[in-house]
Each structure stands twice: as structure tokens, then as C-alpha cells.
Write a structure and sequence with these properties.
Structural class: mainly alpha
Number of strands: 2
Number of domains: 3
Strand content: under 5%
Order of helices and strands: HHEEHHHHHHHHHHHHH
Helix content: 55-70%
Length: about 400
């Protein structure tokens, strides 16, 4: 069986599974944050006497629902408790295998860019894994230190660490690989928050109730802090998951700045939604998030081109497409690891090439993200010649 075919199907299955379990995790997380922020004092005085601190009524799917939250714990635990953890764990597992398949197995295509840093495959994989491990160790260390007692100070330190990480990743990997690893680092932190802090805290709460003692409040405080962080990491992580579609951002010379700006925009928008749940939303927070997004778009505007020379003819650029592009963008690719042309883009006939002229100019000349990792060793002179052909009307 053809290896490229197997890899393509593994990619499909893992990506689909990652999306499914990720939706389940984020959906549950968003719901419980909404739930906590919409609780009202119980309508029935008997409920308050039982230790219920808040409740919320809802209608959905043709039925009425009520959810109640105890101030601490019920007098007697039920025989079965539902734990929300496997959504997070399976998101990490499927995401890690997908990372290994796309960015480590295919490091030469998706992760390494010799023009950024001439890494070997082993070096690139080691650095990528190192960022995932170091990201958690630094984050967890800061949270458990004295800095973690001051949310504002801790938040400032985490922003600095994220900025340093984004800069470093974008100066080590291809833009596409850097963006994905930034998101993978935050996503790993989110899952390990669940595994090492949030779930153990809940287990301690259950254990204390079973043993008839008052639970240590530190577990609840730590769990709440990590849950808040997870909430604000969510939208930046979701952006990095789709960022490979936007070469204008990850292929930009200031790609690390754009990554931080759009991540800050997502975090601010999420802050506004959380405030909105509580009924005290500040429109300036939403405005700040949208302004950040607008600044990202402005910074990513293509720079004015210098004089690249006179227009070139198709006859001059056709050999470049044949030698540098058609090994991947062909009905039957000859480049190892490709079972089909990427994104279904064919560049075999003059008509196919001319129809994609704007896209080709953007990917080859403006952002320079194609060929990925410069697999086919296109030269700057050849890139410029393609730009001159596009400048002349791509005829």
C-alpha cells in the first residue's frame, strides 16, 4: 500500500477526531462558565437550607431544565458523579498524534524552513517537543510561586512568556510550524491544568466529603485560577488550529508580532463574553479586542513593492513551474509524501497556472511560503521572475 495514501488517511482520521473531541471539551467548558455566571439564589427556601448556593433555569429542545450548585457539597454524595475530563485528555492525545504526523513525520515540509533556521529533522522535533514540556513547566512554576498569588502580576508574566515564546518559535521554525507549536504549547498547558490541578482538586473535594471533613479551600482557588486561564487561552488556540490557511500572517516578516496581536484580540473577546455572562460587560474590552484585530490586519498589509523589473512572459516562467512546483501540484505528484496535489491545486497546464496567478504571486513572492521549506530549491531570482510575470498581467 502506498505510504502517502496511508499518511493522508491517518491525517484525515486524526484531524476529524481532534476536531470532534475538541468541540466536546470547549463546548463543555464554555457551558459551565456560562452556568456559573448565570446562577441566581434558589427560589425554594428548602434548597437554600440544603446548602444550594445558586440555580439556573433554562429551556432547550422542547424541555425545561434546572441546574443547581451547592455552596460547598451536598449532605450526601450521590452514587454516581459525572466527571468532565476525558474530553480534555482525548483532545491532547489526538492533537499530539496529529502533530507527530504532520509536523514531525513531515518536518521537512511543514516545520523546517532553512531560510529561518537550517535545522535537521531530529533537531526540529526535539525543539518542538521541548517547547511543549518547557511551556508547562514554566507556566506551572509561575502559578505555584509567590507570583501566582497576584493575578495581575501573574498575568503580566505569562504575557511576557508568551511573547518570548512566539518570537523564539518564529525564529526557529517555518511560520506555519511556529504558529501551530504556539497553539500546541497553550493547548498542552490547558489539558495539564485539568489533569494536574483541576481534577485532583475535585477529587480532594469528594474525598473530604466522604471522610466528613472540611476540604482545604486552596484546591478550589487553584482550580478556579487555572480554569480562568484555560478560558482565555481558548480562542488563541482555536486560531492557531486554523492558521495554516493564512499565509499572509504566518509568512509575514513580523509573523510573531501578528501572532501575539491576534492572540490578544481573541483573549480580550473572551474576557468580554465572560463579563457579559455576569451582566457587567465593559464595551471597552470588546472594543480593545476588535482594535487589536484591526491592528493585525493593518500590520499584515503587503509592503509597497520595490521595482522588480520589467514584465516577464509566460515562456520565461513556465520552466520554473515545471521544475519547482509540479512535483507537488500535479495529478500524480512525484514529491515524496504527497498522494494528491495539496488543496487540489494543479499547476500543470498554462490555463491552470494562469487561473491561479494571484495566489501563486502571493504564496511564492509576497509571503514566500511556497514551496514549503523550499523543498524544490527555488531561487530568489526565480521568485522575482514570477512576480514580474504577474505584474505584467500573467499572460
Amino acid at each position: 500500500m502506498d505510504a502517502a495514501f496511508v499518511v493522508e488517511w491517518l491525517n484525515l482520521v486524526l484531524r476529524w477526531a481532534h476536531m470532534i473531541v475538541g468541540i466536546a471539551w470547549i463546548g463543555a467548558s464554555f457551558y459551565f462558565i456560562w452556568l456559573d455566571n448565570h446562577l441566581h439564589p434558589p427560589l425554594d427556601p428548602a434548597d437554600a437550607a440544603k446548602g444550594i448556593g445558586g440555580e439556573v433555569w433554562a429551556v432547550h429542545g422542547g424541555g425545561f431544565y434546572t441546574a443547581k450548585k451547592f455552596t460547598l457539597a451536598p449532605e450526601k454524595l450521590p452514587p454516581e458523579l459525572h466527571w468532565f475530563k476525558w474530553e480534555a485528555y482525548t483532545t491532547l492525545i489526538t492533537g499530539f498524534f496529529l502533530l507527530c504526523l504532520v509536523y514531525y513525520y513531515g518536518a521537512e515540509v511543514a516545520l523546517i524552513d532553512p531560510s529561518v533556521m537550517p535545522l535537521t529533522k531530529v533537531e526540529a522535533i526535539a525543539i518542538g517537543l521541548g517547547f511543549l514540556v518547557l511551556g508547562w513547566l514554566v507556566y506551572d512554576g509561575l502559578c505555584r510561586s509567590a507570583f501566582g498569588e497576584d493575578d495581575a502580576l501573574l498575568g503580566g508574566l505569562l504575557i511576557i512568556y508568551c511573547a518570548v515564546s512566539a518570537w523564539a518559535l518564529c525564529h526557529l521554525f517555518s511560520g506555519r510550524g511556529a504558529y501551530l507549536h504556539f497553539g500546541a504549547m497553550l493547548g498542552t498547558i490547558m489539558v495539564l491544568n485539568v489533569y494536574f490541578v483541576i481534577i485532583p482538586g475535585q477529587r480532594e473535594l469528594v474525598k473530604a466529603k466522604e471522610e466528613g471533613r472540611t476540604p482545604d479551600p486552596k484546591y478550589g482557588l487553584m482550580g478556579r485560577q487555572r480554569s480562568v486561564h484555560n478560558t482565555y487561552f481558548t480562542l488563541p488556540v482555536l486560531f492557531t488550529m486554523i492558521s495554516n490557511h493564512y499565509a499572509g500572517l504566518y509568512g509575514h516578516p513580523w509573523n510573531w508580532v501578528l501572532l501575539l496581536l491576534i492572540s490578544a484580540s481573541g483573549a480580550l473577546v473572551r474576557v468580554w463574553f465572560v463579563q457579559r455572562h455576569k451582566g457587567n460587560q465593559n464595551p471597552l474590552v470588546l472594543a480593545a479586542g476588535l482594535v487589536m484585530l484591526a491592528i493585525t490586519a493593518i500590520v499584515s498589509l503587503p509592503r509597497p513593492e520595490a521595482d522588480i523589473g520589467p514584465p516577464a512572459s509566460f515562456a520565461e516562467v513556465q520552466p520554473i513551474f515545471k521544475e519547482r512546483c509540479q512535483s507537488c501540484h500535479a495529478t500524480k505528484p512525484t514529491q515524496e509524501g504527497f498522494a494528491a496535489p495539496p488543496k487540489g491545486v494543479l499547476l500543470e497546464t498554462p490555463e491552470e497556472i494562469r487561473a491561479r496567478a494571484a495566489m501563486i504571486n502571493q504564496q511564492v513572492w509576497v509571503t514566500r511560503v511556497m514551496p514549503p521549506g523550499n523543498l524544490t530549491h527555488i531561487t530568489d531570482a526565480e521568485r522575482r521572475l514570477i512576480a514580474r510575470w504577474f505584474k505584467g498581467g500573467a499572460q
